Amino acid sequence: MTKILSLLSLTAFYLTSFFTNAEPWINTSDIYLKANIQQLADAGYINTPVTTYPLMWEDIITDLNKINPSRLPPKTQQAYFYIRHQAKLAKQNLTTLTAHLSSKNQRFNSFGDNFIEKNSIQVQSTYLSGNFSAKVSTSYINNPKYGNKTNFDGSYLATFIGNWVISLGRQNRWFGPTWDTSFSLSNNARPITALTLSRKSAQAFNLPFTKVQIPWTVTTFMGKMDDNRIIKNTLLWGFRLNFKPLKNLEIGFSRLAQWGGDGHSKSINTFKDILIGRTNCGIDNLICNENNPNPANQQAGYDLRYSINLFDIPIAIYGQKFAEDGNADTYSYITKAKPQVGIEASITPFSLPSLVFFEYGDSLADCGVRDNIGDCYYEHSSYATGMRYHGRTISNLYDNDTKSYVLGAITQLNINTHLTTKLRYLKLNYDNRDKAPNNPLIGNPLTSIAENMTMLSTSLRHSYKNWRFTLDASLSHSSYKNMIDSTNSSNLALMVEYNL
Length: 500
Fold this sequence. Notes:
Blueprint: H1 2-19, E1 25-26, H2 31-42, E2 52-53, E3 55-56, H3 57-64, H4 74-91, E4 95-102, E5 120-129, E6 132-141, E7 150-151, E8 156-161, E9 164-170, E10 174-175, E11 193-199, E12 205-206, E13 213-214, E14 216-225, E15 234-246, E16 249-259, H5 268-275, E17 296-310, E18 313-324, E19 338-347, E20 354-362, E21 388-389, E22 392-393, E23 403-414, E24 417-428, E25 451-464, E26 467-480, E27 487-499
Antiparallel strand pairs: 1-3, 2-10, 4-5, 4-27, 5-6, 6-7, 6-8, 8-9, 9-11, 11-14, 12-13, 14-15, 15-16, 16-17, 17-18, 18-19, 19-20, 20-23, 21-22, 23-24, 24-25, 25-26, 26-27
Helix pairs in contact: 2-4
């Protein structure tokens, strides 16, 4: 018995030391890791907030070390071992080679999608040492549409100071509890170069006079949008706070603001006004004209996710509301916040663990000038290119004035093989108007006219030793209001990864 206890103690010590220096965060490239983390969080094994990406590894690993996997139900046990394996890879200094071949560019880039453009190669190397972490990611694109042939998307330098992480790099972000798209911030566009400050651990605070502990985390960044746009070198500030007042309830608050850039103020006083929301023309004695343009384009919103067990089936409802700032024509403080809602369930059809979700969103915000006419979301009077980078919206995959209905399933076929399937019905730009249909720097980059689209897409991923293969396929049918013939489209892509 003494030998057994000694062996168990040594094993526990090994696991704890093994996980203490994992790579700082989880990025948006692995939807299966996100699904497994969410599953353990809903089951009460992971206590940290998990709806902000990049997601810090710190608390995920701490909670993993508290779990006895032999006592987990089989489905939860599979999730545990998948997360633990990814944590093991995150700790290692790896170099990964990736080749991506596809017949077309990705029109929509969702969580778990790694490449926007077709036919590219990528080399990534990660390095960890003490309080320092770095990643160098270099991509070459044969015929780019959204930027240069060579880029460093995914690269970063990071250091730890106490319970804080300071990083500089080009990282994809995802704010909110959704799976397919996010009205606040998503990885639909290429990442921008940004300086970021994040909490390393969501150490809880105690409610006064109670024993209630609430884990919380916060992240904020300042980046530069250095693409071709109306206001060159626009700055983008982002902020997100999220916390778990209950084990099955997570709440988040997000803000985005474009400011600065060529010909616009970059002063501390201007940024102070942004922080308190005093940047709306006609409000707080702010008068806007040609000589004094609107100093910022702001967005703000909140989201929540609540999970329950219904007839032994884990179910969650989630959603967010996100609003643009005031419109120059109406002097209203904010446009009406638009909803995005979803429901998900963890089921096992044919003994295959699956997360099934349905999401609905409507991004047509009434500007207050014309009924049922949008062109407000992700737009602005001064920052006319809007919340877009290299021709793609940094938030909702389907841009403004769109109704989206998405049914999806994330399935584990076996320990090494996973499948994601989505059926989308989209009413793109359904107000049938665009701010500047002939100017590629202004207006809806997806379509300048109303387009009804039905799309079926699937992604099959298989891992074998140091190799990973991903096969993506999609079929879509589009019809148009403007007496244009309907169109059909298809795309086929193969991604091959190898860890040296």
